[in-house]
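User:
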Amino acid sequence: MELVATLFPHLHGVVVDRVVLAESSVQVEARCVASAASCPSCRRASVRVHSRYRRRLADLAIAGRRVLIRLLVRRFFCTDAGCDRKIFAERDVVERLSPIFENWI
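Assistant: Predicted structure:
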């Protein structure tokens, strides 16, 4: 596990649940696993999950196969009563992966 963390530090906080090899593609299903996320408005940490949704990213081809990454991202409730933002999505993992996987589908 230390080797993976050293070689792929941008994957910290992400668990790969499934990899499906198809004739013309590789599909990776992954999810964010941090126990909390910070509101982008007030910076308060929250553990109260509102909902989940999938983001789809495309990576460079592997052995001539298109790579599709389906990342399960959570939305959280902001617990600061004075904050204008009531719901927010976890962003740190997505932002960390975005420069690497520049192609959103």
